[in-house]
Structure formats: C-alpha cells, structure tokens
Design a protein that fits this description.
It is globular, with a radius of gyration of 23 Å. The longest helix is centred in the N-terminal third of the chain and has 29 residues. It has 16 helices and 14 strands. With about 450 residues, the chain is an alpha/beta fold. The C terminus is likely disordered. The chain has a 7-stranded mixed sheet with strand order 3-2-1-4-5-6-14, sandwiched between helices. The protein has a 5-stranded parallel sheet with strand order 11-10-7-12-13, with helices on both faces. The protein has a two-stranded antiparallel ribbon with strand order 8-9. Helix 5 packs parallel to helix 6. The two termini are about 30 Å apart. The protein folds into 2 domains: about 210 residues, Rossmann fold (3-Layer(aba) Sandwich); about 210 residues, Glycogen Phosphorylase B (Rossmann fold, 3-Layer(aba) Sandwich), CATH 3.40.50.
C-alpha cells in the first residue's frame, strides 16, 4: 500500500501548464505516491479566460480535444476522476458593488473575480469602461466557476483524503478556491508555475506571487551558495538579460536598443533627469493587493508625490513606461493623462530607449516594484524603491518611505549601491526551477507539448 496520495486538480487546457501537472504526476508516481487526477476542465467547468468576451473553449471541445490528450499521458496506475456538481445559485451580478462584496461560505469569491478581471480584460478600470456590463456577465460565469471549483475540491478531499494536492497557479478564480479547500483540511499544497527560466517550472507550497514567499525562497537558496558561484551566475543572468536572451519573463531590454557601455546621444538628454520606472499595475493587482501600493500610496499617488517633489527642487522628471503597458490601453491612457496633467515627460512603452542604459545615465532612478531595480543595483547604480518588493528589508536596499526621504535621495549625491541582494536574486533566477524530464520544454501558448520519450 502506498504511503502518500496526491490529488491533482487540473484547471488548465493551456500548454505548458497542463504538461507540468502531468510531469509531476509521473515523478510522484515513481516516488510511490498514489495518483488521483481530476481534470476540472472536463468537470462541467468552462475556461472563461481564453478571451475577455466570448471565444472560450466549449465544454464539448475541451472534452473531445484535451481530455484524450491528458489521459494518454497520465501514469499507468493513476486514477482518473471526473467529478461535477450542480451549478450554484448566485445573485444577479449587475453592479460592481454586488460583485466585489459577494461571499459564499464566508469566502471572498466576488473580490477574487473582481481583481482577476483586471488581468483578464487588461483593463485596470474595467468597471468604468463602456463594456462594464458585458464584463459583469462574464463575472457571473467566473463566479459560478469559482464556487464549483471549491465545492468539487471539498468533495474530492472528503472522498480521497489526500496527503498532498497539486494544482497550477493558485491565484485564479478556478484555482484559489482549491487552495482554500486544501488549507481548511490542512493538506500539503504543491503549486506549480512557470520557472524563472522559460524552459523550467517552479514549485511552491503557497500561492506564488506573495512577496514574503518569493523573498524567503531567494534567501533560503542563498544560504547554501558559495559567494564566487553566486556572483558568477548573477553576472551571467544579468548579461543574458542585457543581450535580450529568452531567460526571464520581464526583461526591460526586449525590443530596445542593444545594451552598450558607450553612451550615445539618445541618452545624454537624461543625464540630469530623475527617471521613474513604472510597473504594470493590473498584472499585479490580480495577484495580491500588497504589490499595488507603497508607503506613499498607490503607484499613481506615488507618481504625483514624486512629481511635486521634483518641481519643488527644480528637477526634471521622466516617466519610463513598462513595455508590457503597451498591451493595456486603459492603463496606458490613464498614466499618459496623469503625466500630461503633471507636466512630466514620458518614454512610451514601445520606445527603443534601453531601460538599463537609461537608469545608468539618469541623475537618479526611482522604481516602484519592477525588476529593473535589481539590474541597476547589480552594476552599482543607486536606486530608490517606492513600492513593496521582494528585496524589501534587505541590507543595502534603499526604500523611500516618506516624501522627505524621496527629496533627500533625488537631491543628494550619487552613492553606489553595495547591496548583495541583486546577486542573490540573479543567482536564484539562473539556477532555480526544474527541468522537464518527460516533456520537451516550450514557450508556446497553444498547441500540444510533445513527449520527448
């Protein structure tokens, strides 16, 4: 009789997340785990995140297409569990207030869906858009999906009494309720996500994206690393980012000027400017509210405060938009309008200006919570952090917690950064994660993930 039992609840019909779950099913099976696999996508739960309005997978298509694909790739001894439940009755979700305040069994399902729509619609202010009523229709479907995920997870836990539960992401309306169910029953979680390297996956025992969780993983990893090896790996990691190699999800060098230590005329203009690097609000807003605000308020409120400080000091402020904001028209227009009102210059997300070179030449670099901070600090540039980040509280990481601290930083002399956290971060990003053994790694977002054996 096997000692452990792992319950897999698979919500995804997207490469490579489905295959990561299958990979783990094989690995745990080899470790004498009993595998119970429930493809939630075949359990009368549609996938409503394929596109904001319409264009979703139909249940029939998913069952006819993905279910045979998954079944053929499960471990031989795995038990397939197709489980469903009645569609829960919910109130008429015709206002955002009803949505955001709705709870089921004292759990904030409504707020979960409300925040998720920020990412799904790529619109931070979806509730004020002309399509708001259409989004509320979608929200109702997501809400039902979310509650069904929770009810099915609870029923499967009661039936199989697993020692471990394995799932993807843990942040979406169909996965976070599974986390809630597992936590209530004190079941060990194994949550998988894409790794820091695009060809790897990462494992978590809590919802990924939490700053404390990410920081703890980095610091624990660093405890057992030789300084020379860590420095070598971090140097290679940041060098790859500068050379625009597909190593990391959010490199600022993509589609920008190739990095060079020679400063061209394109960058001379910024030598006496304070540069504020925006992060992408709604991507973080759907994960955890802790990343959307800092000591000076939200990112927008912080930007206003920084602009006022620069005006008082007679300094010019330039706002570097995050490249990903090019895809988020509502958010992009909001910040463009704000910058216009504040009378500060902007660098468009599609600009070829290299953000690393920009930060190097700037009088001072301010970062809300983007990873450009660690790239700059690794090469000795002093950076002022305005929002919460994975490096918060670490030695040498300069956090600006008040307007007076912002003023002192941007008006003071340049003091090279000596923090060792960027080295820890770069070493971790270079080495952590797991290589696929049964499946060939791929970065495709559609199509099948081929077996390598």
């Amino acid at each position: 009789m096997k000692k452990f039992r792992a319950l897999f609840i698979e919500t995804m019909t997207v490469t490579p997340h489905t295959e990561t779950g299958l990979e783990l099913a094989h690995l745990l099976s080899e470790l004498e785990y009993e595998i119970i696999y429930c493809p939630l996508f075949a359990s009368s739960i549609q996938q409503y995140w394929t596109s904001p309005i319409g264009g979703t997978h139909s249940e029939q298509t998913v069952i006819e297409d993905w279910l045979p694909y998954v079944v053929r790739r499960l471990p031989r001894q795995a038990k397939l569990e197709i489980f469903s439940c009645e569609t829960p009755l919910i109130p008429n979700i015709n206002t955002t207030k009803i949505l955001s305040e709705y709870q089921f069994l004292n759990k904030p399902f409504g707020l979960l869906v409300f925040n998720f729509l920020k990412e799904l619609t790529k619109d931070l202010f979806w509730f004020t858009s002309p399509q708001a009523q259409q989004y509320l229709v979608l929200a109702s479907k997501l809400l039902q999906q979310s509650i069904k995920s929770y009810l099915i997870a609870c029923a499967l836990i009661d039936q199989h009494k697993p020692s471990h539960m394995v799932l993807f992401n843990g942040r979406t309306p169909s996965t976070q309720p599974i986390v809630w169910a597992a936590t209530e029953k004190s079941i060990q979680l194994i949550i998988h996500e894409r790794g820091p390297n695009k060809d790897k996956y990462e494992l978590f025992d809590d919802i990924p994206g939490k700053l404390a969780v990410s920081r703890e993983k980095i610091l624990k990893f660093a405890m057992y690393r030789a300084a020379t090896i860590a420095l070598k790996n971090a140097t290679e990691f940041f060098a790859r980012l500068r050379n625009n190699q597909p190593l990391h999800w959010s490199s600022f060098t993509e589609n920008q000027h190739k990095f060079t230590h020679e400063i061209s005329q394109d960058y001379v203009y910024y030598r006496d400017k304070v540069v504020y690097f925006l992060s992408s609000d709604d991507e973080q807003g759907s994960i955890l509210e802790e990343t959307t605000s800092g000591p000076l308020g939200t990112q927008a409120e912080t930007l206003v405060s920084v602009a006022n400080v620069c005006t008082d000091l007679g300094l010019s402020l330039v706002v570097r938009f995050h490249p990903y904001q090019a895809q988020k028209i509502s958010e992009l227009n909001f910040y463009k309008d704000l910058c216009s009102t504040l009378k500060v210059n902007i660098i468009d997300p599609s600009s070829s200006i290299n953000s690393l070179m920009l930060g190097i030449v700037a009088r001072k670099a301010l970062v809300f919570n983007s990873n450009i901070a660690w790239e700059l600090m690794f090469i000795g540039k002093s950076v002022g952090l305005l929002g919460k980040s994975i490096g918060s509280g670490e030695d040498g990481v300069l956090e600006l917690n008040s307007i007076s601290e912002v003023a002192e930083f941007i008006s003071g002399p340049e003091v090279p950064s000596v923090s060792n956290f960027p080295t820890k971060y770069g070493d971790f990003m270079m080495e952590s994660g797991y290589n696929y053994k049964l499946f060939q790694a791929t970065d495709r977002s559609s199509g099948y993930f081929p077996l390598s054996c």
